[in-house]
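RETRY 2/3 - previous attempt timed out on the joint model. Re-submitting the same 614-residue input unchanged.
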Amino acid sequence: MNSAVVICECFARDGLQHETAAIAAHDKIEIIDAIADAGFSRIEATSYSHPAQVPAFADASQVLKGIDRREGVSYKATCPNGKAVERALADFAAGYGAEELSLLVSATEAHTERNLRTTREKQWRNVAEMAALAGRRFRLIGVVSMAFGCPFEGKVDQGSVVADIAHFVSIGVRHVTVGDTTGHGTPSSVRSLFERVARDVPEVTAIAHFHDTRGTALANCVAAYEAGCRWFDSALGGVGGHPAQIQYGEGYTGNVATEDLVNLFEAEGVATGLDLDRLSKVSLLCEKTLGRTLQSRVARAGYGFLG
Amino acid sequence: MNSAVVICECFARDGLQHETAAIAAHDKIEIIDAIADAGFSRIEATSYSHPAQVPAFADASQVLKGIDRREGVSYKATCPNGKAVERALADFAAGYGAEELSLLVSATEAHTERNLRTTREKQWRNVAEMAALAGRRFRLIGVVSMAFGCPFEGKVDQGSVVADIAHFVSIGVRHVTVGDTTGHGTPSSVRSLFERVARDVPEVTAIAHFHDTRGTALANCVAAYEAGCRWFDSALGGVGGHPAQIQYGEGYTGNVATEDLVNLFEAEGVATGLDLDRLSKVSLLCEKTLGRTLQSRVARAGYGFLG
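RETRY 2/3 succeeded.
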């Protein structure tokens, strides 16, 4: 089945990044394989973060080695620095590397300082070095986080975000994730930014990455779709979320829930190309693995499209 | 402050209807008064259902008598039959009646049979009798539930829903709530129905009433707004929900959460006319009264609009 949209399933990385309990590598592998079985063509699998800084992904190579590779599926790994790219290259050389590497900048200086502990200027230099080091072995995915607002700086100028996306193009990156990291986007700001990117940086495939911090993620996905976006990130159970959000309460309100996004697309007649029964099964597997009820509404209520 | 949208706060009726624990009348009164203090001009306060059938609202008259009436606020009560309208008239004569009565039909025969235990034809006769009995003492609010789909019948013909709305007009009702009772609506079906109602039944004020069964409630509110709708129903904490939904799991995923809807409108520059600090306080009061964490994202994360 052809799909009209490309959904990257982010449970295993963005979803798990801030989980407090350690998830065993074999559990991650089981989930990633089940995600692939459901038909996703892009899967965010892990991060080559420094194991001491992000212990959740100390098993990055183990996970990439352990998954059962499916033809036509791209596995993505996050890279924060040159050392991470070197690890990605080593795994690639060993025959089990990721197909995609994601390289992140933040739209604001204050968030860059707090989250990445550097300046935007230095981070752009870091990203350019990573892109050069990665060469053409991987599909590079740029990420601009805080693209719709920042808890530290407030509003974010859309012209600046468009310039960041163009900056990615200048270092050879053709796919850029536009991240609403803390749920400040609204349908109108999403629509205007995605329309502007399509107009001003047409060589880029923009990817919508929305968090549901304030319940707007699905509405924002609709707005991005209406603005022409066809690539989306989501996480099963709506897990993930920045620690700055989690501190507000017990809810791990993170990414838009894959189950809910898929249900909405299918209900609207937009083919996702997924096996919906298998998707339901991996949704249950994620809840079982994390040991709690997650945030997807559809996981509770079932699919809602009608014959 | 003028408001660009009119939000009817439905916590005390649609929200509480299916709660298993009994909520004391004084707690309901405290919440309704706090809702009025936050600036809502329309509040769904109770239902004149038969006390034996819906014990949660056996205190209907007590609640209406106990609330501290605010000028400019309309209190709404649901009426299922002529006996209920007689009780509403008696309370009105005693000086503490509701300003609005809502009269419900379901868009589908199967749901009418299961939920109202009658036929659509008989229910329309019942509704016409109630409207005649109520006379001009109240603003009558028609309700068409299952307007976007039905778990028993599947798809619902929009022409039939428009005919139901026109039917309400023929019996003197000028405000009609269009209900997505079980979360089958999508942005495109919502947009097309609200546009069609505005075109075909222009004398009616259509009210968007969306449940978040499948996470689409906020996206559907955006679509209704874009189609010209300015009247919305919501419930604090996103409580409510039809028992047929609740059976699927532990989540009481009901109405669109007031906190999240208000946050979205304010973030989009659409004035709600509400006192947001007081809204946050009544949101906490609702959680305290029900003794559990409710469904609003904004209640956890705080308002997201930026200066």
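The beta strands of chain B are 6-9, 42-47, 74-78, 100-106, 139-145, 175-180, 205-210, 231-234. Closing ticket.
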